[in-house]
Amino acid sequence: MKKLPTKTSDGATDIVKTNGKKDRHTLSCLVENKAGVLARVSGLFSARGYNIDSLAVGETEIPDVSRMTIVVKGDEKILEQVLKQLDKLVDVIKVSDYRATPHIERDLALIKVKANKSNRSELMQICDIFRTKIIDVAADAVVIEATGDEEKIQAFLEMLEPFGVMEMSRTGIVAIARGKNVLSLKK
């Protein structure tokens, strides 16, 4: 299939198949926990025209190793080249594409919503249904913590629209393989 570059809303270029379907990839990378690694890794994607949809980085159980979870959409062959180049970076210990691996993904969102005495109980009921937590309450607003997959977060946000979402901050996707599958330090 022929690949066509397309511009995203933020001006980056995504590579899509000619049928318009983008392949979604959740990548997990173990990297050395030091300055400059994030810039080198994200630079490989931008140099190839990939827009990163989600990026989360944090320390692992080993303090000098960080785990990067990167979600991208694009052509399989170009992504395969990026993965090979990532694997060659000195600071990258291990790279895995979870596309064919059973795994768990989660996103955390902190959402500030308009709330008053007349609508607060309805808002609390919606939070209960979605198993979210109200973590801060003011006279005219609440802050809600929502954790789940992208579809759950999106459905919850749609339910909050009538109340008025004032502000939101999201972590991006984090992922881990199911069962005994482990992203080990061995290359």
Shape: elongated
Number of domains: 2
| SSE arrangement, N to C | EEEHEEHEEHEEHEE
> What is the CATH architecture descriptor of the largest domain?
2-Layer Sandwich
pLDDT < 50 runs, ≥5 residues: 1-20
CATH H level, superfamily name of the largest domain:
ACT domain
Count of β-strands: 11
Q: Rounded to an integer, what's the Rg over CA atoms?
A: 19 Å
The CATH topology of the largest domain comes to: Alpha-Beta Plaits
Number of helices: 4
Structural class: alpha+beta
Largest sheet: 5 strands, antiparallel
Q: Percentage of helical residues?
A: 10-25%
CATH class of the largest domain: Alpha Beta
General description of the model:
The protein is α+β, with helices and mostly antiparallel strands. The chain has two domains: about 5-100, Alpha-Beta Plaits (2-Layer Sandwich), CATH 3.30.70; about 105-175, 2-Layer Sandwich (Alpha-Beta Plaits). Helices cover about 25% and strands about 40% of the residues. The chain is built from four helices and eleven strands, in the order E-E-E-H-E-E-H-E-E-H-E-E-H-E-E. It has helices spanning about 35-45, 75-90, 120-130, 150-160, and strands spanning about 5, 15, 25-30, 50-60, 65-75, 90-95, 105-115, 135, 140-150, 165-170, 175. The strands form three sheets. Strands 7, 8, 9, 10 and 11 form a five-stranded antiparallel β-sheet that branches. A four-stranded antiparallel β-sheet has the order 4-5-3-6, with helices on one face. A hairpin with a 3-residue loop joins strand 8 and strand 9. The longest helix has 13 residues, at about 75-90. The protein is elongated, with a radius of gyration of 19 Å. The model is unreliable at about 1-20 (pLDDT under 50).
